[in-house]
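Intended use. Records like the one below are meant for learning the mapping from a protein sequence to its folded structure. Do not use them to infer anything beyond what is encoded.
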Amino acid sequence: MSNSTRAATHTETAPAPDSTDDPAPVESKSSPPSELAANATAVEGSAPTNTDQPTTSEQHQSIAAEFLALKHSTQELAEIFKRASTALTEAEQKIEATAKLTENIGVFLAENEYLSKDDAIVEQFKETIQQHASPSKAQQSRQTAKPAVRGGRRLYPKPYYFPRRPKWVLKVFEPFGLEDIQTLEEMDLQEATLKCLAADGVEDAGYIEKRVLRKIVSGSDSILQIRDKRLENYAAYAFVDILDHATPEMESVIVMNRLGAVSSRAFLKSMQKHIEAADLKLSQHIIPENVEADLEPLSKSTPNKPRLFICTPEMLERLFTKGVIRPKAVQTMILFEAEHVLKVPSHVQTIKNSLQTMGSCQVVLACHVATRDVLLAQDALAFDADKVIFSMDHANIHTARHFYYTDKSMTSTLMAQAVEMSKKHTVVVLCHGGSEAEKFKEQLSSRTQVVCAPLPASQ
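Structure written out for the chain above:
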């Protein structure tokens, strides 16, 4: 072993020599304490060295970039899911609304015997819709539901719609299963009206028709709330009876909200059918909805037969301004679908001003739904005291004057007829309550044999 190797070994393993033993100092090969600690730590592997720091920072930056990209993608997916959920909810609502409408149409067709009950039933696909509906929809609707706001009383009653509407309110042209008290031929009607009734398939009328129709053809102001094509028939009867023996100078006006509407065209078609059935001779003038239309020829023409004008409220004002309509010659004004015509305040004012220039003119408000505008119009248009307010809906019974319920003279007539019928048949009188039944029993007990059925215990 050489001396240099021995000296190095001594330096690493043996303690440093004392200054007294070795006067000539030997240059030390050892490292500083901090460097030794760093080397020892590197050997043990418990901490990174200074050369690893840049690599770790790059990894952190890469992870941060990937996190931002993932966050952005998650936001996009959330937006897509939100739009899809909204579209799905809207689709479910539309499907349910369509199913409800289909069910109502099916009930209507079945009630009117256009379809059998088996063909009109829709329970099969309704169950399918309920089975495949979103399971969280009910929970979501409960969470988002808001408490109902307490409000005041409705200004006008909400009408009944099928299928919950009682069937008896549909029987406008039927005698309600009673024997006929009086035939139409015995009523004070013109021949033209009887022909129209025959064309509509009405041979015998019940007490509703005899009370309402008789007052309409006599010239009383009227509010008619009837559904379906029966509204068209009643509105036509009002002027057919008057035009039967009218002079050439007489005029009538029919006001509609829109001439091009489907219901308006249907009414015009029905009116033409009644005019042909009654064999009436008159001139019909449908005024187009054009404020620039030339009305000069009509204003200069000399009528040789009664004239019927069909127009909108805007054109009605022009007809009076241009002198086409002679106010004193107008005998009847019919507002078809009055709930739409009277919805606009300017229309009400136009009709009111027109009536003020006329003499004695009958006004008929024909509507499918008796809205608040229609009910208030009777005061704005100054209806006479002998007016007729007929409502087909029993929900509106307290706002309508049903003569067959409230007229005492009509009740007396019916009771007298019931006594006569009881001599050959069994007559059933339906009453509103026990007190009314007892009253009728006292009135009729001296004239015929009366049996008063007791009310159920629950009532």
